[in-house]
Amino acid sequence: MQIDRFGGIRSSGSDVSATVGWGTERGISHPMSGWEYADGPLLTIVREFSGLETTVSIVDIGPAVALAMGGLLVLGAGLAILRRSRSNSRSDTEPASSRKPDDNAPEIGSKNGDAPAQNGTVDPQVAFEERIGGGTLNRLKPIVPDSVEEAQAFDPAAAADPMREINRLEQRLRRELEDAIGDGTLDPGVTSRDGKPYEIVNLPSQYREVSLPPANETIHVADIETVAADVLEDEPHVRDAARTIAALFDHCREIESYVRRQEDAFIQRRRDVEGTLEDVRDLINRFDGDLKDRVAEFVLEGRHGEVDGVVEIERELNDATRALHRCTFDEATRTGEAAAERSDELLMTVDFLSGVVGTIDHGRGTITIPEDVAVEFVADIAPIIERQYEHAVTLKRERRELVVEDPANERGDEFEFDGSELSHGPEAAGVDTPPISSDTNVDAQRGPDGQTRVPDEEPESGAARAQTRRAEVPPEAVADEVLFILRELDGGGRASVECQTERLPDAVAKPAVLETLERFCRRQTDIVATVELQAGAPPGFFELEFDDRTSASAGLETLRERFTDRYGR
């Protein structure tokens, strides 16, 4: 290498590569080291330049020649790289039929391939099972029944283009699932039969949470619809999403079933309480005068410290209903049962007062106060009964008894029954009738009706006398006659029974018997709806109607049993 007079470095042609910078020695940084990967024409050009025997001075050839040589080198490298790229592209796009088979690649239709095939084509039935499947359709049938029914009818042999038909069926399933989710089919919320929503977030944990297959991931019921929509969007095939969506749908139905069972039990209990309170009101309406007003004040409005009134029980029933809607079912059950117990006690209290009034109708008697009836309540009602019915009413607290006596009957007069064998007079008691004075004109002692009377005694009207006698007849005295009528009545599958009293035997068809039967039936408010005895019967009709829950035949049998148990025979 020689020094030029201009300071340039002379080099032989064999040193051009070192001078220009084509060296590839390891560990040395080269400005154009990336070109070492070029092959073909580039390496040929390099070899030709390195074989020149002429000594070239970079300074002598000038900058223009050096730039030209560098451009040629760059152009050659670019051509080589472009050639290599086109070669690889042709290899990738070459049809499989023109390539050489690869012994290691899986065959179409083999176990390791993407899908089984017959003669190089995908089996439509296999594709249908992989993308949809019979199990998927069974899971989705309750959710999208129409599209499932169409998919179940798919027949690959009958389809002109089976794969296109599979695509269409899957798209329809997906579309209808999206609509079902949007329409609230997977909404876990439940609405009560009276239109109030249930607060399902308060349900027990097994209903408040749900585990998703296959990883058993737990989600809250509030997220069910969101999770279902996300799964349907993320999964490539309906079959992959169906298991999760079906599990969410089934859980929603389990929630509804559980809530409905609790609701049905509560509704039945509430109806029982409401029916009992209605019976209480009906019994109170049968009272009259001051007794009705004071009992309504104490019992309906709850203005007595010892009595839970109807208003209070209804308020408690409303509290139980609100607890039901909050899904705090234990609280709803406890509150509802408490309301039922109090309503039964209230009915017993009013029924006890009905028995007191019935005893007054019979003249006298002793009534035991039930344990569920407050003695203080009876003590406040007794004076009203005494004033209104003009009977002596005595409360015996220690013995829990109420004694009713008729002051007009203190002499022990016996009962008369229209001159029949039940009637009594001094003759029946074995007492001789005082003789009529001999100096008294017998004809003057007989009235127009032929009856003998004491002179100057005002004759008692027949109607008044009959009314007095009928009011004094106790049920025990006419038990056989009442039972005879009850046995003669025939329900015949109807809700009411009726008889013409004039068709009864003469020994039975008597006003006192019919009125005793009427009073007894009227007090059976748990099964009897209405009782009507025509005025002046006999002749006339007697009609008995039972409530909606009691048939006529069953009601008559109950009346016979109760009358026999209470009055014998």
Structural write-up:
The chain has 569 residues and is mainly alpha-helical. Among the domains are: 10-89, no CATH class; 470-567. Helices cover 50% and strands 8% of the residues. It has helices at 16-20, 41-50, 58-92, 124-131, 134-140, 145-152, 162-182, 205-208, 224-234, 238-285, 289-300, 310-325, 329-362, 375-389, 462-471, 479-488, 511-522, 552-567; strands spanning 10-11, 56-57, 117-118, 121-122, 209-212, 217-220, 365-368, 392-396, 401-405, 496-500, 528-533, 541-546. A 3-stranded antiparallel sheet has the order 7-9-8, with helices on one face. The chain has a 3-stranded antiparallel sheet with strand order 10-12-11, with helices on one face. β3 and β4 (121-122) form a beta hairpin. The chain is elongated, with a radius of gyration of 55 Å.
Number of helices: 18
Structural class determined from secondary elements? mainly alpha
The outline comes out as elongated
Count all strands and give the number: 12
* Mean pLDDT over the residues: 74
Helical proportion?
A: 40-55%
Radius of gyration: 55 Å
Query: Could you give the distance between the termini?
Result: 154 Å
Poorly predicted runs are 1-61, 87-120, 411-472
Summarize the structure.
With 569 residues, this protein is mostly helical.
